[in-house]
Amino acid sequence: MQSLKELLANYHAYHQDHRNQMTHYFSIPAILLGSLILLSWITVSIATRWHITFAWIAIILTLIYYYRLQVKLALVMTVILVILTLIATWIGYPKPNTFNLIVFIILFFGGWITLFIGHSLEKSRPAFFSQLSQVLIAPLYLLIQGLEALHLTHYFDLENLIPTGKDEYESH
């Protein structure tokens, strides 16, 4: 398994253009919320009493991956992802209807369109085309950027985790 620093460096190499980065501030959360709405429509029943949606299963598996990468970031992502999953479940559960289908379409497809617009402005392909795990790194990358903007990286041992220059990772 690659280290968090390596994964972030790979992701960063595909996101140098400021316009592309700006589109990701909308597109990544929109795609994530849209995906969680979609996954909230699929449930597993346990002993016919308990029902768990695939959204919760996906979040649990994602958080296990995040905890293996870095515990402090995973704790913050736990709060964020639980809140997003609760919102998605509130919107989407128990089944598709006109309202939540429209919300899903706007968020999911609007997010992907915005993401691809950003990458066309940068004239680069999305990082997940070269490494599928980058789909899970995108939310972490946005979180780290938010923590940097708030000058909180020192609380999370993130100094020098994201490279600052394009020249460090020209091979991508």
Task: List descriptors.
172 residues, two-stranded antiparallel sheet, mainly alpha, 6 helices, 2 strands, 65% helix, disordered C terminus
Describe the structure.
The model is unreliable at 166-172 (pLDDT under 50). α1 (4-13) packs across α6 (134-149) and α3 packs antiparallel against α4 (71-92). 65% of the residues lie in helices and 5% in strands. With 172 residues, the protein is mostly helical. The protein has one domain (4-12, 23-157). The protein contains six helices and two strands; from the N terminus they run ααββαααα. The two termini are 19 Å apart. A two-stranded antiparallel sheet has the order 1-2. β1 and β2 (50-53) form a beta hairpin. The chain is globular, with a radius of gyration of 17 Å.
Lay out the secondary structure.
Elements: H1 4-13, H2 18-40, E1 43-46, E2 50-53, H3 54-69, H4 71-92, H5 98-122, H6 134-149
Antiparallel strand pairs: 1-2
Summarize this structure briefly.
The chain is mainly α and 172 residues long. The protein has helices spanning 4-13, 18-40, 54-69, 71-92, 98-122, 134-149, and strands at residues 43-46, 50-53. The protein is 65% helix and 5% strand.
Number of strands: 2
Low-confidence spans: 166-172
- The shape, in one word, is globular
Number of helices: 6
Structural class: mainly alpha
- Major sheet, described briefly? 2 strands, antiparallel
- What Rg, in angstroms, do the CA atoms define? 17 Å
First CA to last CA: what distance? 19 Å
Helix % is: 55-70%
Q: What percent strand?
A: under 5%
